[in-house]
Structures are given as structure tokens and as C-alpha cells.
Design brief:
mainly beta, 22-stranded antiparallel barrel, 48 strands
């Protein structure tokens, strides 16, 4: 009874309190920043509930809640805070996120706050690269940064490096970008993305001039991850998937081939038909089979998997980051594939209060394999006759290969023709010490030594294989063997690079207003390369694939070696006043061993300034504008990537002769020396505007650039007649201009549990040849001067001839009174208007093969534990040259040639078919140019994170993320049978190639 009375009393006491707590109240308040600025659009949610509001233009809000509820205040650029509801008025002051304030970007030989930068720099964080990772890191940068122009022309495993340009091409020679990993010149394409902290692209002289004679084509800096203080974290990431071609060319089937080949034979000298009408009908109704050689020879999909294990942690004195990586990428046939093993260890140790050291070690082992015939396999597949069976009947030989009608077997090339294998071993190391000078605040001394070594071993063993040839008339099979015999090629190559750096840096602030930082650095880099090759031919057996097993007759060997050294002195001074007025001056005094002593050293200065208008009193309290910065820069940088030692005379072995009954080797000179040769120099002007609205919700950049490249090395081989009789040297005579714009616009916001980011970027870059050596009598419309790089050159096509009368009344374009021309052949413009179409009528046609415009659209969405990433990338302003010889040597033809001219199809798209080569239709002309414009879904990833789940913690897992992803999943292009990034195809020069690939992945990430 007493117990019941106590419970009754407790109930009477608690019930009114519960009633009060459960009662809803109208809460109002105001949200401001720490400097008193009202914040517009702050998201306010009730924790644990799916409802919320945002602040108005004055930072005010009103919401219905219960006392005891927890409100969550979140805003882009500010630290998220939580407050409990205790009264009906709740004002909140939000602090800017320290991460946003202190965001730094890697620049040349250091880091810099992003808000203080005056140069043109693009950067991407390593986490972004982990979304739908690609086997080749360079291909992951496309569309994610302005200024970066790439073209991936193949999907071959291990050999899929893209053509890579920063703001387009600017020289006739090496346009390669300077690639740095942790400040040292190294390749980036084979890096494991799990090792990467960030990637920075230096595009203008203000940011890149510190690299002097190597920076004219831009600089890419990859910064790898380092350890952090705290509990050791172990992270495993694994992906499993498969790849398929982005585009498979549609070829004619057996019925179409037989029908149109007969037509092509009749058009070509009235040759007799190859197939009877009954055979054609048999192919049409399926009585006789049709072979899809692509499907018979290649896999429908090729497997791919990537694995990475990283360990990160440390104490106050020692921090470490270690990673292990593995990639296994199968090719479209069994002999094709790529395997990569990586390891990295970055260790930082604080020895004393003022002195620290770091040791970085990295290793990589690669295995690349393919058929001995290489990409020739794909040309064979395309040309194979669909009327031929891939295998002979079992009665002839079980599993016996049949000819493709061209005296080869694509399957034999893929499986039995031998192999080509390459193994690469890479070792990279850097030891660095940093000393904080105790008696001068802000002064640091740094010294580092790097030693890198690369070793490569290549081996190609080519073997003949057997196949059968089918005589259709008498229905017999004859066994054949491919020609050429058994041969072996082996080669080794190695290089080493030593880099020494010594630097002093100084950072100080005076009177809380004047901020100064300075750098002075010395750098020396030496590079050595050597290789050896040997080969033997006509092996009597394929049993032993070693050099000693081959005969001595016709054996061959060779090799080369080269070395170079660079030295440079770097200086940089940064000054800013109250974070408003920004100034930077930097220089590099560079010396290169490539040039004579009198021309060896050069000075490359740059100056830049910035004005953060948003920090001025008349804008500082603006509630809309968060950041507005105007920046401009001018400077010079260089390019010494030219053939070395051209200032010296030399000799080389050449073909000899038999003298006195024995062979004597001959020699000839290497050409006239140029004692005045020096590096190419580029001057660059940039003007840019950076802005941020609504505390970072909306942000963007706009940049205009103009680069003048001078002293480009070219020989005067056009203006000097060939009768001169000597090899002319390169001279510093070429001139090229590059200009364009870059722009990026980003919107980021959060609505309750829904976060989103949309970012669009575009780069427009165009080149113009200002001067190059050209013949004096060259026609004006054929001069390269004044035109962009790599613009296509040929005849302008006016369509097809539609009647014999039209041919008879047209200018002579075959050199024989147009007697060889037929209705349906290509008609060309008589540009010179002299009644004859010849070399004088060739002109510049279409656009360059380098895109003028590259654009990207990056989208990131997340809702609670789900997140979605999509990266679209595209290009326009370029043309692709794709010409085919349908039915040449009676090979197969693309299905598009069904729309070729005939009496039954007078309005056809393509010219009259010939079973052979007719020169008129093979001329390089605008007829075979295609608009290369495209848009791709470059990357896609959908993920779910199991965050802080009790059942995971019980087994030691802190975080589990699962995802599906893909690369190149969708492509929108006018080109049907070829990928829009395909290399130019011309049967006389470039055949078909290993296609670009799309990837489908499933993966997961586990943090222990």
C-alpha cells in the first residue's frame, strides 16, 4: 500500500513536467556569423526528424518545436552546430569553418592559401579520383579541371595513356606537360589513386615560372598522402568489374557482303561476280552461315579488379602512411592484359622541437602483354570476310583454323602468333630534412635528396601458325602456314634520376597587417638513360624462346645511351596587406646541358597581383557577396625538351660497301651544327576573376589567357633548296600564339539531409602559327602561318558526281581528261579556278584534330547514407579524319557503305563502290572528315555507407561503404562506328586500333 502511494506521488509530480516538455512552442531567432553578418539560407533541422527550415534574407527564422528538441544549424563554409531548445528565442552565432579558411593548394615548391593565390591554378582532391576509379590516372582528370585537354585514343591495357595538353598545343616539338610527384619529375599515369592527396595543375607563368625551362607546357603536381596523428586507421578498398568497347564497328554480314562485293567488282573494270544469286539468297535466308569475326575472335567482356590497402596513423613525433595496391586488367583476348603492383611508405618524424625528417619510398611492378601482331589484330578482324567460317569442319581437323579469306586467321593471330611482353620495375625515394631556425621566427631550412630508378624488359616472340584455306569452287581445304618464320626480339632499358634540393623559406606577419613569405631554392637534377636490343630470326623450332636458340645468320643488336643535367635557382616573394592586396614575384635562373655554354642559362621571371575587393569596407558587410578577387599575371617560362647537343658536330654509322672482298661500314655526318641553339621561351598573360556568393553556395572562376611562344626550334628545310646537300640544324625561328578562356561555376547547398553540388567547367583554347619556315613560292592559301596546329589539309569535296554530263563539264581532276571518273565518284573544288584540280587546289579543310573546347559537368548528391556522383565530359571544335577502302582486296566493309552510290541509290551518302583502289576517292579531302563533338558520362558511382553500425563495430569495422560505378558508360556523338576520340584512320597510314573501353564495377570500402 505504501509502495502504491509513492508511485502515485511520483506520477503527479512528473506528469505536469512531461506535459510542459511535450507542449509545442513557436521558436524564433536570428543567425549571424562571428563578425556580425546575417546569414541567409542557413538550414535548420530538428535532429532525428525529417523536417526543417532556412533563414530569411535577414538571418531570421521561425519554427514550431518542443522544448528539449535539438536543432542542427548547417551552412556552407561554416561549422555545423547543435543547440537544445530551452526557451522560445534562440539566437545563434556560427563560426567559419577552419577548413574553408585554411584551405591550401599545392604550388611549386610549397603550398599556399587558396584565397591568397594570384596565379591560375586548378586542383582536384584525391577523394574525387576514388569515385569510379580508372586504371590510368591521367584519364581520370578529364572534365574535372579547367585547362586540361586530353584525348584517349586507345583502351589497350597498360598502354592507354591519353594525349595530354594544358591549354592546347604551343610548339612544333614536345608539348608534354611537366609531371611531378611530391615535387620530383615522375610519371603519374600508373599511380594508385588511393595514394593521392591532391592533384594541382599550374597553368600560367605566375604559378609555373618557378620550373623555368620545363614549364612552358604547364605543370601537374601530384601530392601523395601522409600520416596523421591519432589512432591507426586501416582501410581496404576493392572493386570487381568488367570492360566492353565503347563502340564496336558494324560490319556487313555475309548477305550484305556478297551483294555489295558483286556490285563493287562490276564497278571495278567490270569484273565477274564472286557470288551467284543462289549463294546470295542462301546467305540472306541463313542457309549458309555468316561469321561475325569480332565476336569469334574477341571476348564480349574483359575482367578488371583493383585492390588497395592503406594504413594511416602516428603519434606527435612520428606519423606514417603506407599503401599496397594491385590492379589486374584483362584484355579483349587471352594474351592481352595488364597487372600492376604498387607499394608506398611515407614517414615523418620529429627528431627535436626544431628538426624533422621524412622518408618516402615507393615501388611499382608492371606486366603488360599482348599478341605478337599487336593492334594489327583489329585491322585483320575488320577486313575479314563474313562468308568464311572461323573453323574448318571436324572431318578436316577438329578445332582447325580456317582462313578469313585474306590468307590469315584473326583467331590464329590472337592465340597462336606469339606474344609480346613488357615488364617494368620502378623504385622512387626521397629523404628530406626540415629545420625551423629557432633564433629567426618563421625561417625554415629544407634539404632533400631523391633517387629514382626504372628498369624495363621487353620480349616479342613471333611464331608462324597453321590454318586452312578453303577453295569454294571445289570445296577442298588446304593447310597453310603463315610466312615470316619464328623470330625473337629482346630489349632492356633503364634510367635513373637524381634530384637535390636545398631551400630557405620565410613567413612572417608585421603589425597584424603585412604578411610576407619568401622562398629561395637550389635544385639540380641529373638523368641517365640506356637501352640494349637484340634479335634473331628463322628459328628452326618454337620450343625455346631464348636468343641462344636462334641461328647466328641475320642476327642483329643495338643500343643507345644519353644523359642530361639541369641546375636551377628559384626565388619567390609573396606579400599581402590585410588579405586584400596580394602581390607575388618569382623567378627561376635555369641551366640546361642540352645547349652550348654561352646559351645554357636563362632567366624566367613572373609577377602577379590580386585584389580581394570583397575585403574592402564598402563590400565587407555585404550579405550576398562572400568573396570577390581580381587577379592578373605576366611572366615567362621555357621549354628545353629538344634534341640535345645540336650545337656539336657528329658522325654516325651508315650503310657501307664491299671493298677488297669484305664489307666496310660507312659513316656520315649528323648535319650542320648550330652554336646558337637555345631553349624555347613563352610569355604568358592571365587575367582572372574569382567569386563566391551566399557564403560559398555559389562560386566560380573566369580566366582569360594569352601565351606567346617564341624561339621554337625548326629547320629551314622549306626555304633552303634540297640541292643544298647538307642536313640543316634546328634554329630558334618558330613563333606560335595560344589564347583562350576558362570558366567554372559551382553551386553547393544542403536541404535537411539532402546535400548536392553541381559544377560546370569549360575551356576554350586556340593556337595560331605566327611564323614557321615555308617555301617562298608557296601559295597563300596553303601556308601554315596564321592557322592552328594540326588543321586538316586536302581537297574540298563538293559531294558526288550525279551524271556523266556533270563529269564532262567539270574541271579535270584525274589528270586524264576525267576519263577514269564515273557517276558516283567524289567531286572536288577547283579552288585555283584554272580548270585543273591538282596540288594547287589542296587547302586547309575542317578543323584541327585537337579540340578547341573541352567542357565538364560534375554532379554530387547525397541523402542520408546514400551518395551519387556523376561526371559528364565532352569536347567540340575538332574534326576526325576517318577514311576506309571498302572491298579493297575483297575485304569486308563497314555497314555504312550500304548507302553507297548506285543506279538504284542515286542520292547516296557514300561514293560508288570499287573492289580495289580508285585514287580519286582515296584523296585526302573534306569528304572523310567527321565532326568529333561528343558528350560522355565519364564517371558514375552510386554508394551506400553503413556508418557507425553496432553490428560492424563488434567485428572491428568502423565504416563500410558499398558502391556500383562505371566509366564511359554513355557516349553521345555523331560518329557511329568509331569512338569520337579515335585516332585518325587512313588505310595508307593508320589502321584500326584497340578500342576505348567502358567499365562496370562493384566495390566496397572498409575502414578498421
Amino acid at each position: 500500500m505504501k509502495k502504491n502511494k509513492i508511485l502515485l506521488i511520483l506520477f503527479l509530480l512528473v506528469f505536469p513536467v512531461a506535459q510542459i516538455l511535450a507542449q509545442e512552442i513557436g521558436l524564433k531567432g536570428n543567425v549571424t556569423s562571428s563578425d556580425g553578418e546575417s546569414l541567409i539560407g542557413v538550414t535548420i533541422t530538428v535532429k532525428g526528424q525529417n523536417r526543417g527550415i532556412t533563414t530569411d534574407i535577414n538571418g531570421n527564422y521561425t519554427i514550431t518545436v518542443k522544448k528539449g528538441d535539438i536543432l542542427v544549424f548547417s551552412y556552407i563554409g561554416f561549422t555545423t552546430i547543435e543547440r537544445a531548445v530551452t526557451t522560445n528565442i534562440l539566437d545563434v552565432v556560427m563560426e567559419p569553418s577552419s577548413e574553408m579558411l585554411a584551405e591550401v593548394v599545392t604550388v611549386g615548391y610549397g603550398v599556399q592559401k587558396k584565397v591568397d593565390m594570384t596565379g591560375s591554378v586548378s586542383t582536384v582532391k584525391g577523394d574525387v579520383l576514388l569515385k569510379a576509379p580508372t586504371p590510368n590516372l591521367a584519364n581520370a582528370l578529364t572534365g574535372k579541371m579547367t585547362g586540361v585537354i586530353t584525348t584517349q585514343q586507345t583502351g589497350k591495357p597498360g598502354l592507354d595513356d591519353p594525349a595530354f595538353f594544358i591549354r592546347g598545343k604551343s610548339t612544333f616539338g614536345d608539348n608534354g606537360t611537366l609531371l611531378l610527384v611530391d615535387g620530383i619529375e615522375r610519371s603519374i599515369s600508373k599511380l594508385d589513386p588511393n595514394e593521392i592527396e591532391s592533384i594541382t595543375v599550374l597553368k600560367d607563368a605566375a604559378s609555373a615560372a618557378v620550373y623555368g625551362a620545363r614549364a612552358a607546357n604547364g605543370v601537374i603536381i601530384v601530392t601523395t598522402k601522409r600520416g596523421s596523428e591519432g589512432k591507426t586507421k586501416i582501410n581496404y578498398s576493392g572493386t570487381f568489374g568488367f570492360q566492353t568497347p565503347t563502340v564496336i564497328p558494324e560490319m556487313m554480314n555475309a548477305y550484305e557482303y556478297a551483294k555489295y562485293l558483286n556490285l563493287a567488282l562490276d564497278n571495278f573494270n567490270n569484273n565477274a561476280p564472286r557470288f551467284t544469286e543462289s549463294e546470295i539468297q542462301a546467305y540472306k535466308n541463313g542457309t549458309m552461315p555468316s561469321t561475325d569475326w569480332w565476336e569469334e575472335t574477341l571476348k564480349k567482356r574483359a575482367g578488371i579488379q583493383q585492390h588497395s590497402l592503406t594504413v594511416n596513423g602516428g603519434s606527435k613525433t612520428t606519423k606514417f602512411f603506407t599503401s599496397l595496391g594491385y590492379l589486374d586488367q584483362d584484355g579483349l583476348y587471352d594474351l592481352s592484359g595488364f597487372k600492376r603492383y604498387t607499394v608506398r611508405s611515407n614517414i615523418d618524424t620529429q627528431i627535436t622541437n626544431d628538426f624533422s625528417i621524412s622518408l618516402d619510398l615507393a615501388g611499382r611492378y608492371e606486366k603488360i602483354s599482348q599478341s605478337a601482331v599487336g593492334d594489327g589484330l583489329f585491322s585483320t578482324i575488320i577486313n575479314s570476310k563474313p562468308t568464311e567460317s572461323p573453323y574448318v569442319p571436324d572431318s578436316v581437323e577438329k578445332g582447325g583454323l580456317n582462313s578469313n579469306g585474306q590468307n590469315v586467321s584473326p583467331i590464329g593471330q590472337a592465340e597462336n602468333s606469339g606474344y609480346s611482353k613488357t615488364e617494368n620495375s620502378v623504385f622512387q625515394s626521397t629523404l628530406q630534412g626540415v629545420y625551423n631556425v629557432p633564433f629567426v621566427k618563421g625561417l625554415k631550412a629544407r634539404a632533400s635528396f631523391s633517387y629514382d630508378r626504372w628498369f624495363s624488359k621487353a620480349k616479342t616472340f613471333t611464331m608462324p601458325y597453321e590454318f586452312y584455306q578453303h577453295d569454294r569452287i571445289i570445296d577442298t581445304y588446304t593447310k597453310r602456314k603463315t610466312g615470316g618464320g619464328t623470330s625473337l626480339y629482346e630489349g632492356t632499358a633503364e634510367d635513373e634520376r637524381l634530384t637535390v634540393q636545398a631551400a630557405l623559406t620565410y613567413d612572417a606577419t608585421f603589425n597584424k597587417a603585412h604578411n610576407i613569405s619568401a622562398l629561395f631554392l637550389f635544385e639540380e637534377s641529373s638523368y641517365k638513360y640506356s637501352d640494349l636490343q637484340a634479335s634473331r630470326v628463322n628459328y628452326i623450332s618454337t620450343a625455346i624462346d631464348q636468343l641462344f636458340a636462334g641461328p647466328d645468320k641475320d642476327k642483329d643488336n643495338g643500343g643507345l645511351a644519353r644523359e642530361t643535367v639541369r641546375q636551377g635557382y628559384v626565388g619567390r616573394l609573396n606579400y599581402n596587406y590585410l588579405g586584400k592586396y596580394l602581390f607575388q614575384f618569382n623567378f627561376r635562373y635555369d641551366g640546361s646541358y642540352n645547349f652550348p655554354k654561352s646559351k645554357r642559362w636563362g632567366f624566367f621571371p613572373a609577377v602577379s597581383a590580386g585584389w580581394r575587393i570583397s575585403e574592402e569596407p564598402f563590400l565587407k558587410d555585404n550579405a550576398i557577396l562572400h568573396n570577390l578577387k581580381l587577379r592578373a599575371s605576366y611572366g615567362e617560362f621555357g621549354n628545353d625538351r629538344v634534341a640535345a647537343y645540336q650545337f656539336m658536330s657528329g658522325y654516325r654509322f651508315n650503310s657501307g660497301s664491299v671493298i677488297g672482298g669484305s664489307f666496310q661500314s660507312g659513316i656520315n655526318d649528323t648535319g650542320i651544327a648550330n652554336p646558337n641553339i637555345t631553349w624555347e621561351t613563352a610569355s604568358n598573360t592571365d587575367v582572372g576573376l574569382d567569386f563566391s556568393l551566399l557564403n560559398g553556395k555559389i562560386s566560380g572562376e573566369f580566366t582569360y589567357f594569352y601565351k606567346k611562344t617564341r624561339d621554337i626550334l625548326l629547320p629551314r628545310s622549306a626555304s633552303v633548296p634540297q640541292s643544298f646537300g647538307a642536313t640543316l640544324p634546328d634554329e630558334n625561328i618558330g613563333k606560335v600564339d595560344n589564347y583562350g578562356i576558362e570558366s567554372i561555376l559551382r553551386y553547393t547547398d544542403k536541404i535537411g539531409d539532402f546535400n548536392f553540388m553541381v559544377e560546370g567547367n569549360i575551356t576554350y583554347a586556340k593556337s595560331k602559327v605566327v611564323f614557321m619556315d615555308e617555301a617562298i613560292n608557296k601559295l597563300e592559301h596553303q601556308r601554315l602561318t596564321g592557322r592552328p596546329f594540326d588543321q586538316n589539309y586536302g581537297y574540298k569535296a563538293l559531294g558526288l558526281f550525279h551524271s556523266q554530263e556533270e563529269i564532262d563539264n567539270w574541271a579535270i581532276q584525274d589528270g586524264r581528261g576525267n576519263t577514269s571518273l564515273k557517276v558516283g565518284d567524289i567531286k572536288y573544288e577547283d579552288f585555283y579556278n584554272d580548270g585543273v584540280i591538282d596540288g594547287k587546289d589542296a587547302q586547309f579543310i575542317g578543323k584541327s584534330e585537337i579540340p578547341e573546347i573541352i567542357f565538364g559537368l560534375n554532379i554530387g548528391l547525397s541523402y542520408k547514407n546514400f551518395d551519387l556522383t556523376m561526371n559528364f565530359q565532352g569536347a567540340t571544335g575538332f574534326d576526325q579524319y576517318l577514311r576506309w577502302d571498302p572491298f579493297n582486296l575483297e575485304s569486308n566493309a563497314l555497314a555504312i557503305f550500304k548507302d553507297s552510290w548506285s543506279e538504284d541509290n542515286p542520292n547516296a551518302k557514300y561514293p560508288r563502290l570499287y573492289a580495289g583502289t580508285v585514287q580519286n576517292n582515296r584523296e585526302k579531302s573534306s569528304f572523310w572528315l567527321y565532326d568529333g563533338t561528343y558528350l560522355r558520362l565519364k564517371n558514375f558511382e552510386l554508394a551506400y555507407t553503413f556508418d557507425k553500425k553496432d553490428f560492424l563495430k563488434k567485428i572491428g569495422i568502423q565504416n563500410l561503404r558499398v558502391f556500383v560505378s562505371g566509366n564511359n558508360l554513355l557516349t553521345f556523338s555523331k560518329m557511329k562506328d568509331f569512338d569520337p576520340e579515335a585516332p585518325n584512320i587512313d588505310p595508307d597510314r593508320n589502321a584500326y586500333y584497340y578500342p576505348q573501353m567502358k567499365t562496370y564495377n562493384f566495390g566496397f570500402n572498409v575502414e578498421f
